[in-house]
Amino acid sequence: MLLIYSHHITPRLSYTLQFIFNEVWKFPFELTDRADVFEAFEGPRIYYGKNPPATCIQIEPQGLLHATGIQPQEIQCFTHLGYPAFFKSPGVGYPFDIFSGVFYLISRYEEYLPHTKDLYGRFPHTASLAFQEGFLNIPLVNYWLIDFQQAVRQLYPGFQPAGNVFRYVPTYDIDIAWSYKHKGFGRNLGGWLLKPGLERCRVLSGSKPDPYDSYTFIEQLSEKYHHQPIFFFLLSEDRNRYNKNIRPSHPAMQELIHRLNHYRAGIHPSYNSMQQPGLIEQEITLLQNITEKPVRDSRQHYLRFELPQTYRALIRAGIVNEFSMGYGSINGFRASVAHAFHWYDLEAEQITPLKIHPFCFMDANSYFEQKQDVTVTQQELNDYYEKCRSVHGCMITIFHNHILGSEKMFSGWSEMYAQFASRIS
User: Fold this and answer.
1) With contact defined as beta carbons under 8 Å apart, do 235 and 267 qualify?
2) Which of 230, 344, 415, 424 could form a disulfide with 264 if both were Cys (CB 3.0 to 4.6 A apart)?
3) Phi then psi for 331, rounded to 5 degrees?
């Protein structure tokens, strides 16, 4: 066991240590505010404060974890062992307040501060410290913890955390289940008038498969490489320019969900659910009625969420695992970490039961936002794989059924993804 001393124990400090020791390191620890207990302890020790006793790791607090409320932070980055760091310590202990740094990044502190939202009402990646300081493409928190673990081990050679093993979790967003099929005469006629062509007629006549139907490909890939995918279904009764799926009451939609029901099924709360949280519960009920299983996984459509309101609504609706932590405009590590973590409600100063599962790659970002071709995207995927694997993290990707289908504009993407899947099998 490792003992940590702080003169003041706060929810923020407890949360941060639980993440580091329980989620990442898998190593038992205790936190104490009694100096006599700390001084008498003979095992590995971390002193979170000034003027430590001899023979211990010292981290000098910079104030964030002993504070309450949400205030702009003065962040000045510097380089530590080749990586950016902040909350620099002026003393002779560890070079920076790593606990405050971890908390700042995984609590998404900066997203509570004033900012200009993007076109879809989201926190923009350009406002993030990670983008501005050039570390969005690395799991910086994991790199910090690897270096910090080595520093602890130098003083305490017996300190050997079990840690995690690398995991890959493929996820699929089903927000446009078919391009032409099951959309009815009116929608297909309107689509044909906007974009005349024979393909629609061939698909509707049954002589050609729907270009968005990649479900057999995904199932075969999952079986071949023993994947445990999660499918997120958009089930909105309110169709608009953003909610384009067929209605959840349509037999074909229900048949598709039943077909994939032996995998994990999550809800994909519709576009307006960020402003109308009641929609989340309605759509969860729809999915549960179809699958006859409780729904515990969720990812917001268009990755639209606002802290803390959206996460609070998800908790009220019974969601346990949330998969929206990433940007809809660029790939990378939004929370600067390749591990799951519990959401800390910063306004309420509470650790919550909601577990956040960050993703680092989405196909739509590569294609539509970053304007990459298949070759560059494959290099990007491999790069994120190597980074997540090197820190024994969890790599979560998002693919859409229509991008893995036979649509000409996405030619080569399914082959690229199959090659990637074979590499990490």
Assistant:
1) yes
2) 230
3) -80, 160
Q: Are 276 and 307 in contact (CB under 8 A)?
A: no
Give the C-alpha separation, 130 to 135, whole Å. Answer: 5
* Domain architecture of the chain: domains with CATH: 2-155 (no CATH), 167-177+212-423 (3.20.20.370)
User: Which residues lie below 8 Å from residue 377, measured CB to CB, with a gap of 6+?
Assistant: 363, 366, 367, 413, 416
47 and 35 Cβ atoms separated by less than 8 Å: no
pTM to 2 decimal places: 0.97
Pairing of strands 2-6, 45-48: parallel
**Cβ neighbourhood burial of 90 (10 Å; 0-12, 13-18, 19+):** exposed
Residue 95: how many other CB atoms lie within 10 Å: 19
DSSP element (H, E) containing 222: helix 215-224
Rounded Cα–Cα distance for residues 424 and 306 (Å): 34
The tokens describing 147, both together, are: 């270096």
Q: Given this model, what pLDDT does residue 198 score?
A: 84
CA distance 106 to 351: 12
377-398 tens-digit pLDDT = 999 999 999 999 999 999 999 9
Task: Tell me: pLDDT of 268 over 90.
Answer: yes
Banded pLDDT at 186 (limits 50, 70, 90)? low
What DSSP line would sit under 342-411, residue for residue?
Answer: EEEETTTTEEEEEEE----EEHHIIIIIS---HHHHHHHHHHHHHHHHHTT-EEEEEEETTTTSS-GGGT
Q: Report how far apart, in Å, the C-alpha atoms of 250 and of each of 110, 177, 263 are.
A: 42, 12, 21
- Cα separation, 47 vs 286, whole angstroms: 51
Q: φ, ψ for residue 421 (rounded to 5)?
A: -60, -35
Q: What is the model's pLDDT at position 205?
A: 85
Q: Binning pLDDT at 50, 70 and 90, where does residue 424 land? A: confident
Confidence of residue 131 (pLDDT cuts 50, 70, 90): very high
